[in-house]
Amino acid sequence: MAKAMPDQKAGEAATASANPLEFHVYGPRNLPCTNWRDLLNSRWSNPSYRRMVIACFIQGAYLLELDRQEKRDERTGLAPQWWRPFKYRLLQQLVDERDGSIYGAVLEWDHQAALSDYIPFRPTRAPAAVVALRGTLLRAPTFRRDVVDDLRCLAWDSLKGSVRFPGALAALRDVARRFGAGNVCVGGHSLGAGFALQVGKALAKEGVNVECHVFNPPSVSLAMSLRVLGETAGELWGRARAWIPFVGFQPAPDSSGGNSESEAMASLAQAGMARWIPYLYINTNDYICCHYTSDAAGGRVTVAVPVDNRGWAGNGAGKAGVATMLMVSKGPTKFLAAHGLEQWWADDVELQVALSDSKLIGRQLRSLYAARIAGR
User: Tens of pLDDT along 156-182?
Assistant: First the structure.
């Protein structure tokens, strides 16, 4: 056996002693960092690159809380490794005042770091600020607060009652006001995806549309299930009434048309008002988020086209009405991996874009449609 060179031994020792969550160990293998070439041809215009970097930012939000728990300082912390290669810096930590836990981070373009690498200005499509929201951490210091919000989402299909909701909304509103809504992005994973979707929707109601990327958003809710059962029962009762002869006064049909969410979507699209379109990243093997791809009766409602290696979908991918939903066609199949964040920065994951609207996301955004139609 050939004897290892000293440099090789040192490299192996360094790898062995590295924390498994360090960027160069756990992060993407072939994701290029931001450099001067992005001024000529910005990789941020590639949807796949955008997805992978935002997933890295959310991983940084997870690690901010782990750094706090394990008492790592700014010099030894793992979190900065996940945004510095892309020339971003930490602007604000989102802290739960009840226990001091960190549930999110606000990142901004680091002009000084970019200048040191001969990047005088921000590349095209690179956001000026990103609000990244983590999901549940199964660790004692924050487990209780995270699970309470998980149960809140399960029971009520809403996170507005959480202490963390106004903090995330205020942070997103602040950077949207400071940098402009078109230069801001919000992203979250799991529970954080639920927060990201709902604070993005809250701002959209105010007429402020920010780019929103949600990974493995929770789709299981008792409140939504009861609502679906009620709608199904109403539909069945309507069909039954159609078979029963009726004698007497019959009200004239409503000239304003129906009030279903599909008609509201069509009305908004025709008026050019449906401008806030979140990006949902779904793995159908993850039972926490898989219901986005099913209708009320449990049947599959999506028609998908593959995404090519530049991150673009085939013909017709722009027809999605209320959300752009990307599903894993080749990726993790076991639940824990299917719900994991790391699949979204992987090089070998294959995605499909759903062309038909998800009934679940339509129900979740129904109040947004109603508010905008009422304001017309």
Answer: 778 988 999 999 999 999 999 999 999
User: How long is the chain?
Assistant: 376
CA–CA distance, 358 with 58 (Å, rounded to integer): 25
Beta pairing class for 184-189 and 129-133: parallel
- Please name the residue ranges forming H helices in the chain: 6-17, 23-26, 47-69, 111-116, 140-156, 164-179, 191-205, 222-242, 261-271, 335-338, 359-364, 366-374
**Helix (H) and strand (E) counts in the chain:** 12, 9
Q: In sequence order, what DSSP letters do the residues of 314-375 get, joined into one string? A: -TTGGG-SS-EEEEEEES--SHHHHT-SGGGG-SS-EEEEE-SPPHHHHHHTHHHHHHHHHT
pTM of the model: 0.80
Highest mean pLDDT, choosing among 31-40, 73-82, 356-365: 73-82
Contact between residue 68 and residue 95 where contact means Cβ atoms under 8 Å apart:
no
